[in-house]
Amino acid sequence: MRTMKTKSRLRAAVLFIGSLLALLPAQIAAQTAGRIEFIARVAPAGGQPEPVRQMTFYLLRKSLDDIRSEASQTAPAADLAKFIDGLSVSPELKAWMTKHHSVQLSGQEFTKNLAPGDIVEVPEFFKAYMTHNEAYKGLGFPEPKFKEKDLKNNPEKYNAAKLEYEATLTKYIAAAQDSTKGIELELLDVNPYAKWEIVEAKQRQQVDARAFRLAQERYLVAHTDTDLDGHGTFTSVAPGNYWIGLIGTEAISGDVRLHWDYPVTVRPAETARVELSNLNAVRDSTTAQNSNN
Description:
Elements: H1 2-32, E1 34-42, E2 50-51, E3 56-60, H2 64-72, H3 80-85, H4 91-100, H5 107-113, H6 116-121, H7 123-132, H8 148-153, H9 155-175, H10 193-219, E4 220-225, E5 231-237, E6 240-245, E7 251-253, E8 256-259, E9 261-266, E10 271-276, E11 283-284, H11 285-292
Parallel strand pairs: 1-10
Antiparallel strand pairs: 1-2, 1-5, 3-4, 3-6, 6-9, 7-8, 8-11
């Protein structure tokens, strides 16, 4: 009888100790968990910072930029070569676009890449240049000495005169660089950049959708909404390295659009405080656009 009581007491003791041990991880986690308090503000151009109100911020175990790179590996990139090949333009213009890896026929980059020889050799550039400088013909502007009838009757003479004219015109363009300014206005009908932007936008949307899904399924720790003052809090966060950011949206104030991918370290039983602003944002769309124009 005494033996049975002893065994019962031992079992009860074991169960009691086991229950205590089961509670230990939760208690230890509660004691070592930290928290993150942040405030998000965005300043419009020339204005005062404004709170980012009632927007959802995400706490991730991986940088949004790295998540997007991971997502892009499974999404086919926009194929510029295929796009150029499908354009209804001259072979010479296709070759020029391929060489410069660009289909933009306006702006500073286009002007920088446009050599005098390109204007003479690419039919679309030649036509645009001649149309743009129509008013200067007869005022020192090179005049062709070959005639179309010679192409059939005397092709050698025609080709020689044409080559001579092209060489003269190339030298003229090199010496009179101002004569090329504004010729992109004559290329509006053949400039395919707007169509390429649509192709790139669709590809970016695919990558963004995959990154958003990947972030939620694999790297999401928590999410929270900011209050009317732009404050947000993540509680009971295990110690470690994290990133705070917006996914699929931007904070907007005036003409400024921002998002964050801000690293933060959480230490045991401590509160990490973060201020999100224009200074530590990943992207300012307005600034980026202005710098590209």
